[in-house]
Amino acid sequence: xxxxxxxxxxxxxRRTFLKTTSALVGGAVLGANxxxxxxxxxxxxxxxxxxxxxxxxxxxxAATQALATKGKVTLWAAADAxxxxxxxxxxxxKEQVKxxxxxxxxxxxxxxxxxxxxxxxxxxxxxxxxxxxxxxxxILATPPGFRPIHFxxxxxxxxxxxxxxxxxxxxxxxxxxxAANEEAKRKDLMVAIGLQRRHxxxxxxxxxxxxxxxxxxxxxxxxxxxxxxxxxxxHADFAAAHGHKPTEMEYQxxxxxxxxxxxxxxxxxxxxxxxxxxxxxxxxKHPVEAQGMGGRQVRTGKEYGQIFDHHFVEYTYEDGSKMxxxxxxxxGCVGECREHAHGTKGTLDIDDGAIGGEMKFADxxxxxxxxxxxxxxxxxxxxxxxxxxxxxxxxxxxYGAQSTMTAILGRMATYSGKIIKWDEALKMGIDLSPxxxxxxxxxxxxxxKDGAYPIPIPGKTExxxx
Length: 466
Ligand SMILES: NC(=O)c1ccc[n+]([C@@H]2O[C@H](COP(=O)([O-])OP(=O)(O)OC[C@H]3O[C@@H](n4cnc5c(N)ncnc54)[C@H](O)[C@@H]3O)[C@@H](O)[C@H]2O)c1
Description:
By secondary structure, this protein is an alpha/beta fold. The chain is built from 15 helices and 16 strands. It has helices at 3-25, 32-40, 57-67, 83-102, 126-131, 147-156, 171-186, 201-211, 235-242, 248-254, 266-269, 272-281, 376-390, 397-416, 422-428; strands at 48-53, 73-80, 111-113, 120-122, 137-140, 160-163, 191-193, 218-227, 289-295, 310-316, 322-329, 336-343, 346-350, 358-361, 366-368, 420-421. Helix 3 links the parallel strand 1 and strand 2. Helix 3 crosses helix 13 (376-390) and helix 12 (272-281) crosses helix 14 (397-416). The relative contact order is 0.14. Bound molecules: nicotinamide-adenine-dinucleotide. Nicotinamide-adenine-dinucleotide binds at residues 53-59, 79-82, 85, 124, 126-127, 141-144, 146, 164-165, 194, 196, 253, 269.
């Protein structure tokens, strides 16, 4: 049997197993399939083992949320580039599980953290060891520059996958992810993407109404992530945490937000959430071109690497409609993290905070979503694990890739100052990755003698392979 077909049957039998086991728990009759699957999966336990790759802020959050879903979930393995992050992440998860049990939260009843020392992996090859550790589900929560590599390896090994957004930082990475996602579909593997608004009832209701025609034709959308900045991790921070001065590669991976080969700029890392909603409003279509402007005015220090602190992009869809997008990381300015749709019959204002979803129609009527506000980060894990236990097909990879590429297209437009076409960008967008992934190796961007990194200059910066 070829590797592919053996893994295919592994993925399929896992889902059969979970489906039959949960049916059994629900009192159904045990069939022949269940017997086969039970013997293949540890005596019929409905335990789902999870491996976490990238034990930082979101990884520890996602792993804890996965543990706090219905049924027995065990954190089985963990991997991180840096040992101190792995230890801190694991401690944080253990604390949260302990607290959940102490507070008698029933969702933590069957949660176990069982990451023995031999299942704790450190370094840039740690991801592969975690994937091969015997877990059923892998959570990919490293900086997004690594996502296509880690995703491809997880698919190859036949794992079920929760991958944080964005799924890449450049067009070659998006293409690599898309190819692996097709393989995931062939193998019937589950692929969840951390675009949690997709799991928020208020968004789901609002989208259904739009797609049923409530707003008429959508003429344009406006999407915003305007806020202050995030963390920055200096050389001194690294030395204090790790006990030695970082190599340039270590420094950049630790301070990943500010390097495009790791982050893809904040238009990709954060604003993707709002761009994803813009595409969803348009029936999950992508823009065909973009033009825009941006720069760095406030966040100009060397520790901020090479990314911009603001972007404005005008995206155009095939039908001529527009998406106007703003993202800004500047303190003291007006903030907004929201989406709006303007149709021939009315408008939608939506966010994952206070508004939830509200429509105003041309005839003066109003509609407000009755969907309950939930922690949509947690909800996406409830949905994934329920689907896994039911054996349902589950793949969010296509819109994850499309929304990532939409963000990358916007960045290509603001960096170059040119009109950038989707097809050309996806096919010919430049590769940002380093020659090799090695802490002693050379990253693709280097500081000058004063420690400053090259900043994109509109009108000069090339974004398409010549
Ligand atoms: N869906 C959301 O709302 C949301 C929110 C925050 C972050 N995120 C996403 O989650 C991902 C992680 O973000 P974060 O905030 O947790 O960052 P973080 O810096 O807190 O954590 C990243 C972790 O990955 C580790 N790491 C780096 N390179 C690695 C590699 N090659 N192999 C293994 N480990 C590696 C780092 O050491 C660190 O511990 C990003 O893609 C980010 O966009 C999503």
